[in-house]
Amino acid sequence: MNDDDDTLAEAVRAALAKLLELARTLEELPLEDVEPAGWVGIPFPNWR
Amino acid sequence: VSDPAELTIAGAAHEIATRRLSPGELAAAVLARVERLNPRLRAYLHVDPQAAASGDGPMSGIPICVKDVIDVAGMPTTAGAASWSRRPARDAGSVARLRAAGAVIVGKGHTNEFAYGIDGENPHWGDCSNPYDASRICGGSSSGPAVATASGMALAGLGTDTSGSIRVPAALCGLVGLRPTVGRVPRDGVVPLAWSYDVVGPLCRSVEDAALLFDVLVGGSVERPAVVRPRLGVVEELFEAAEGYVADGVLEAARDAGQLVPVRFERLRYADAVHQLVQYAEAAAIHTPWLDSRYAPDVRTRLEAGRLLPAGAYLAAQRARRLIIEEVAEKMTGLDALVAPTVGFVAPAHGTAEVGGRPLRAALQSCVVPPSEAGGPVVSVPLGSHRGLPYAMQIIGRPGAEAVVLGIAAAVERRWPWRERRPGA
User: Fold this and answer.
1) Considering the entire predicted model, what is its pTM?
2) Complex ipTM
3) Touching check for A16 and chain B: CB below 8 Å?
């Protein structure tokens, strides 16, 4: 690892920690029984 | 307007149809602007000096700048990257429709690296600058199409918007920018950033031009219902960080255009978390095959962090997004559209790190990210200027309601039309 690698690794750790903190805030929401939103416009076949 | 490069699409089409202007004269006027201004403003990464129309239709002879994440056959697609590029054999679907309608593709417009930025700056290709004041940012990531359109280096631009990348540069450069409903305009042949939010849309000098270009992009003529005294929901949360002149300007314009109804959204405070989680994860998945190429440190950091994000966090964000969509749908009952500032301040100087105590990126995105969650159309329309720099409002509609938001925008636009707004007017 050189200095650039160390700097990048540290920045990635900090960014990931922030993302996981954001994910924790979503635990306040009533997500049970909620289907994920999808990609509107993607032509999935109609299986039902 | 004496210089054809300053005409709107509608104005130029009229001049061409009445034979007072030829497509060749229009292209020459635009290319002369490119030669004069591009070294300073950097709107184009690639220019076709032989640019000419290949089709015939409503865009006959109209010079367009295409953001360099969208494929144009015969021109390189670099996505503003340092060492990644491709040479497409085919036009992107959106570009093919423009060409079939007679548009002239002048070249490929500047963008933040892989469209993963909001300020219009790029460490590999140089920073794009604001035509109202070149010491200031123009916003991004559709920086090139915005600057080209505002400065006469094209009559309109084709951009992409994931987290505000059409609306922010449109607002900072005094243009009308339309983020269409997700899935309404073809996005094949576009370097993706985040599938859940990516759209292709126009940056124009007038609402009429945006409607004309939108019709071409969707491959037909969209009905234009009359919107009389619309009921407009004022999204109060999105006014909180705006400068007073922006907040007052939006309210005044909305009050002139319709009836105001204050609205608050309980779940809007989760919009930024949802957006970041979804975008980081999807961008990382898209970039996995390219990670050997060179990236600026901030972009690489986001991509590497996104690769490490647990699938559960991504799915929680997509479930939370559905709750946001449901709340927006419910609260829009009885309303024609929602209104909010696009950016809460005018273009800051190059090198600005923070605005209002927040990092520049977060400050520029704070009003444009929440409407991206709902998936419907959003138009940004210029309202006025502060210290010679433009500011704007967003009109946010139900999915598929482009005609409604454009109808309301047309009423708002009368406050500050292109002939009074263009740089140097």
Assistant:
1) 0.96
2) 0.90
3) yes
